[in-house]
Design goal:
Strands 6, 7, 10, 11, 13, 14 and 16 form a 7-stranded antiparallel beta sheet that branches. A 6-stranded antiparallel beta sheet has the order 5-8-9-17-12-15, with no helix packed on it. The chain has 2 domains: about 70 residues, no CATH class; about 190 residues, Sandwich (Jelly Rolls), CATH 2.60.120. The chain is about 5% helix and about 45% strand. It is mostly beta strands. The longest helix has 7 residues.
Length: about 280
C-alpha cells in the first residue's frame, strides 16, 4: 500500500493512496516498494547509492525490515560504511524534485529523521558528527555566485551526530536565498562513520518563498483535493481510493489514525490553520 503526504507547518496527513512524498523527498520512510539491496549508481525505490567509496569492501546499503524505528512503518534504510579516512565517499541520494518559488523570499528547508548507528564513536573525527546532510540545488540558481553558476549547482551541508545503538530524532534546517525555482535533492553522506547505521521516518518541509504542500501532491495525482485551505476545525478531502488517514506533528509523533470518510477533525490539534 502506498501513501501521499500532505505537509503543514506543524503536522502532516498521510493518505494511503499513491507514492509517498514528504516535502521534496520521495519515499521518505522507505515504505514504497519492496525490500532489497541498493546497488551503486542504480535507483532503487527513489534512493541511489553513490560516492567514490560506495563499492568498497564492506560497504552496502539496503531497505530492510529487521531494524526499524517503532511507529514508522515496517521498513528502514540501512547503510554499512567503513572509515577509510576519506570523508563523504559514501552517500545515499534521493530523486531530484523541481518546484517554483516567488523569487522574493528565501526558503527554509527542514530535514528530520530517526537514526542510530553501531559506530562506537560517531563523533571521532569532528565533534558535531561524522555523518552529513547535503541538499543540492540545480534549479535556476539566480542567487548563485560566479563559481556556483559555472558548476551548475549549489550545495548546503550540515553535520549530523549519531548515537551508538540508540534511536535519536535529528532535525536540521537549511536556508536558500530567494530564487524563481529550485531543483532539490537530498544526500545522506557518511564520512568516517564506521559501522551499521539505520535511518527511518524521514520528513522534509519547505517554507518561505515556496511551500511544498497540497499543490505539490496534485502534481503526482491531480484527482486529490483538500478544502478549505486554510482549515481550522475540519479538513475535507476528495480522492478516489483513499482508505486510511494518519496525522503526524513536526516531531514525527502520530496524532491520529482513522478510516477515510472524507474529512479530518482538526479541532483537537494546536490552534493554527492547516495549509
Amino acid at each position: 500500500m502506498k501513501k501521499i503526504l500532505f505537509l503543514t507547518p506543524l503536522f502532516f496527513i498521510s493518505f494511503s493512496y499513491g507514492q509517498t512524498f514528504s516535502g521534496f523527498v520521495k519515499n521518505p520512510s522507505f515504505e514504497d516498494g519492496s525490500i532489497g539491496t541498493i546497488i551503486k549508481n542504480r535507483s532503487y525505490n527513489d534512493w541511489k547509492l553513490g560516492g567514490p567509496n560506495s563499492d568498497g569492501t564492506g560497504v552496502s546499503a539496503s531497505i530492510q525490515t529487521a531494524n526499524v524505528h517503532a511507529g514508522d512503518g515496517t521498513k528502514a534504510l540501512e547503510v554499512t560504511s567503513v572509515n577509510n579516512n576519506t570523508e563523504w565517499g559514501i552517500r545515499l541520494i534521493n530523486t531530484t524534485y523541481p518546484f517554483d518559488a516567488d523569487n522574493t523570499n528565501p526558503i527554509d528547508v527542514t530535514v528530520s529523521f530517526w537514526a542510530k548507528t553501531s559506530d562506537t564513536d560517531p563523533g571521532s573525527v569532528v565533534p558535531t558528527g561524522d555523518m552529513r546532510l547535503l541538499i543540492k540545488d540545480t534549479g535556476s540558481l539566480n542567487y548563485a555566485n560566479e563559481k556556483q553558476t559555472a558548476n551548475g549547482f549549489v550545495d548546503k551541508t550540515r553535520r549530523v551526530l549519531l548515537t551508538t545503538d540508540t534511536w535519536v530524532y535529528i532535525t536540521k534546517t537549511f536556508t536558500f536565498p530567494a530564487s524563481e525555482s529550485y531543483n532539490l535533492s537530498l544526500f545522506l553522506e557518511f564520512g568516517k562513520v564506521d559501522g551499521v547505521t539505520q535511518i527511518d521516518g524521514l520528513t522534509t518541509t519547505v517554507t518561505g518563498g515556496a511551500t511544498l504542500w497540497t499543490q505539490d501532491i496534485a502534481k503526482d495525482d491531480s484527482s486529490v483535493s483538500l478544502y478549505p485551505n486554510p482549515a481550522t476545525d475540519f479538513l475535507n478531502y476528495r480522492s478516489e481510493g483513499v482508505k486510511n488517514i494518519e496525522v503526524y506533528n513536526s516531531l514525527g509523533q502520530k496524532l491520529k489514525e482513522e478510516k477515510a470518510d472524507g474529512s479530518v477533525n482538526t479541532s483537537a490539534f494546536p490552534r493554527v490553520p492547516i495549509y
